[in-house]
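Lecture 7, part B: from sequences to assemblies.

Below are the input chains for today's worked example.
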Amino acid sequence: MALEGTTSPMQAIGVEVAGLTKRYGSVLALDHVSFDVKAGELFALLGPNGAGKTTLLHILCTILSPDEGTARIAGADVVRNPLRARRRLGVVFQEPSLDDRLTLYENLEFHGLVYGVPAALRRQRIDEMLAVVELSEWRDRLVRTLSVGMKRRLEIARALVHDSRVLFLDEPTVGLDAQSRARIWRYLHQLRLQRQLTLIVTTHYIEEVEQADRVAVIDGGKLLALDSPGSLKLAHGHEVLEVTPLDGAVENELLEKFAMNIVRTQDGVMTIRVDGPDFVENFLARYGSRIRSMSRKEPSLESVFLSLTGRTIRDQGSTARDRTLAFGKQGGEHTR
Amino acid sequence: MARGLKSDLIALGVMVALLGGASMLQPDTSLQLVERSGVLRVCVPQSFPPLVNDNRTNPGFDISILEEIAKRSNLRLSTNVSATMGRDFNPANWRITRAQCEVVAGGVVTSVMTRSFLETIDTGIENGWVMISKGAAPAKGARIGVYPGFAGLDRLKLSTYLRDSGYQIALASSPEAVVQELKAGQYDAAVASSLDALQVVSASPGYSTNWLPESLGRFAFGLGLWKGDVTLKRRVLSAWRAMQQDGFVAQQRARYGLIEMPKTAGL
Amino acid sequence: MSVSTVEDQDESESAALLRVIVGGVYAIWLREVKRALRDRGQLFGGFSRPILWVIIMGVGLNPYFRGEVYGEVRFVVPYTYLQFIFPAVIALNILYTSVQAAVSVIWDREFGFLREVLVSPMPRPMILFAKVLGGATVAMFHGSMAILLSYFADVPISTGDILSGLGLMFLMAFGLTSLGVIIANRIRSFEGFGVFSNAVILPLYFTSSSVFPLDPALTAAQTRVVYPDWLVRVVELNPLTYAVDALRGNFIHFYQFDPRIGPLVLLAMAVGFFTIALIEFRRN
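Predicted structure of the full complex, as C-alpha cells:
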C-alpha cells in the first residue's frame, strides 16, 4: 500500500508478493506466499515440478489471477492494474514464444509495437538489444533458421525492447550447452547493471542459483525458505554420505539403523545425512568393510533443496502437450 | 525486413500472374468449331420486320449486322429459317437446336427469362407500345386506331390503359390500314408496337411517336447465343462493339428506319 | 554503450494505452498478413481452389449445362453454370482461409506465441479483434484471388462491384474467422483438426446453395418437389446460404432471396460470432 503513490525510478522494491493463494479445484497450488524482491536484485525461485513456481510466475505475469492476496510489479498491482504492470515487466518463457516465420527484426518490432514503444525509440532499442545479445548480423533472417541458444538470446533481447524493470526468466538456460548458458548469463549480468533490472529466475541448474542474491525455495505451494545461498546452506545444508552397500543385508541394516538420517535410496545408492562431528568416523569404523563405495559431499544448495523438499530437482516426462508439439514439428497439418 | 517483404511480394506476384494467365485459357470450343467450318449459322423467323425482312436487298437489321460480324471474322453467314419462330410465343415449340445454328436472331428478347436459355447480346432496339399522333397527346374522347401486331406485347393492359384515358378504340388489321385511316381522318391518333410504328410514321407526314408508359410493357431485342458458348459470344460481342464504334450500327439503324426515340416522353 | 529509457510519467496513462492499442492492433494484423504470405502452402491453396473449381470443374461440366434446344435447359437460372458457382468459389476460398486463420490461433496457443501477446499491455479484447481482423484480411485477399478468374468465368465485374464485393467479403471473412476461433477453442488435441475442418467447411459449403440453386422461379411448394424437403430445410438453415446469396447478388446480380437478407445475415454473423469468441477468449 505504501508504494502506491511512489513512482520514483529508484524504486526500492521491485516485486511485492503478499498472501498469494491460488486453488485449482481442491488442489492448493499456492498457499499464502509472501515475499519482496528488491529493485536490482537477482532472485532465484527454486522448487520441484508442480511446486507452484509456474503458477506464481503466471500470476506475476498477469496471465492468471490469484484467488487471494496481492502482487505488485514496480508498484503496479497485477490484479487491479494489469496493463500497467505488464508494461513494467519482461518475460522469457521456458518454451520459445517467438514467431518462426518472422525475421528477428520483425519479432522485436512486433514486441515494440505491442508494448507501445514510440517509433524512434523502438528502432534504437532493437538495434541496441540485438547488439547486446550479438545477433545484429542476423536481424533479417527468419527465426526458424536460428539455433535454440540463439532463440533464447533473442527472447531476452525482446523482453528488453520496452522499458521493463522486472525481468522474469523461466528456465532461461534449459536445454542449452554449457557455452551458451555462460553466454546468456554474461548478457544478463551486463543488462542488469545497465538497466538496474530486477531479475527473477527459475532454474534447474544449481550452479546458476549460487550466483543469485537470494533464493526462494517453494514446494507444495508454500514458501519454505528465503535467504541468500550462503545462509541457506548454513541453515539447511548438510554434509551427506553417498553409500553403496555391499549386499541386501547391509542395506536393511542401514535402513533400520539410520532411519532418521536417510534422505533417499536410489539405484542402490543411499544418501545419508551427516549428523554431528563424529558421524563419519563412527560410520566408517562400523560399516567401512561392508560397503562397496562411499563419497562425502559438502553442503550444497542441492542438499538444501533435498532436506527442505525431500526431492531432487529433475525433469518431468512428456505430456499430451509435448506430443502435440512434436506432431506439429513433424510438419502436421496447417503448421506454422 | 526488406528481404522478407521482397520475397513476400514476389510470391504474391507469381500467384496473381498465374491466376491472370489461367483466366486467359479457352473455356470452350464453340468459336473453334465455327472457325473450322467457316460458316456462322443463324436461326431466324420467316419475317420479323424490320429485324428480319422477307426481302433479298434489305434482309433486315439483325441479318445485316450478323453478315457484317461474319465478314469481319472471315466467316460466311448461313440463315436457317424456322417456320414456327415468331408465330408461337413459347420458344420450346420452335424446336431450334444447337445442330441447326449458333446464333438466334429476329425477335430475341433480352429478358431474364430468355437468359435462362440463351446468352444474349443487346442490340439496343426496344419494343413497346407507342402513340402516333400529331403534336401533343390526343384529347379525351379521341378515336385511337390500334394495330397490335405480333410482337408479343400485352394487349389487355393496353386496352385497359386506353379506356381509362377516355379514348375510343378501333382495331386496325395492318400498318397500311393505320396509315390510310389516319390520312382519311378516321383516327385522331394510333397505337402500335414501336417496330410497326416506325413504318407508319415514315408514311404519315406530320405525325410523331411517343412511348406509352413503361408499365405497359417494354423490352429490348438482341442476338441470342447458346448458353455456355463463351468464346463465340466474346467474338460476336467484340465485333458488335467495334461496329458500334465505327458507325456501322448507326448506319444500319438509319437504313431500317430504327431511329432513336425519346425515352422519357410518355403520355 | 548507452541505454535509453522512457519514464512512464512523461505521458498520461490513456495516451500510452492508446499507443499500445493502435500499435498493437497494427502489429498483430501485420503479423497475420505476413505469415499468410509466407505460408506458401496456404497461398497455393488459395490459388489452386479457384483453378480447380472454376477452370477444371467449370469446363468439365459446361457440356452438361449448356443450351441444346431453345426453351429447354436443365438449369433454369439466367446465368451459365460457371457464372452461377463463381461467387460461391469466392466464398469457398474465404471459408478455407478463415478456418486456417483459426488454426493459427491453436498454434499460437500451443507454441507459446499467444503468451507473448497475453503478457503485453494490449487489452485482451483488442488482441482478439486484431487477430480476427488480420485473419479476415487474409481471407478477403484469398477471396479476391478467385476474382482474378472472372474473365474466364465470363462474369463482367465493374469497379463498383469489386468495392461493394470486398465489403461483403470482409464481413463474411470476419464472421467466419470468428467462427473458426470459436471452433479452435474447443479443440484440444491437434490430430483431430483436419477431420473437423473437413466436417465444417465442406458441409457448410455444399449446403449453401453454392453448387445448385433453389430455383427462385418456382414457388416454395414446387421447390420441395424438385429437392427433398430435408435438403431444402438444411439449405435454408445454413447461414452461409445467405452469405453466398449476397455475393452472388453483388457479382452476377442474381438473388435467390430478398437482397436485404444477405448483408443482414453477414453482419449478424460477424457481430454474433465475434461476440461469442470474445466472451470465450476473456474467460480463458
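Note for the exam: The interface with chain B takes residues 34, 37-38, 40, 43, 46-47, 50-51, 55, 58-59, 62-63, 65-73, 76-82, 145, 148-154, 217 of chain C (CB under 8 Å). Keep this in mind when comparing with the next example.
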